[in-house]
Amino acid sequence: MLVTTAMQRCFIMKDNGKDVQLADPNSAFEPKAVRDHYSLLYPVLTTATVDPPVVENDKLVYRFVSTIGTKG
Known about the structure:
There is one protein chain. The protein is mainly beta. The protein has one domain (8-65). It is 11% helix and 35% strand. The chain has one helix spanning 31-38; strands spanning 8-15, 18-22, 49-50, 54-56, 59-65. Strands 1, 2, 3, 4 and 5 form a five-stranded mixed beta sheet that branches. The longest helix has 8 residues, at 31-38.
């Protein structure tokens, strides 16, 4: 028998060069909505992009990548 389960989501951003793991506030939120939710606490996220998810340790890991300080 094949059993399917929903994977947990994890969101990661860099703050002062260190990875900060952010909890999933609501599994119904799209990743961009999660970014907007956390942008109240981390203003750098207002201009961040969301990388496609990567599976790590049975979790979907999304990375918020800041575009501040990059050229081009």
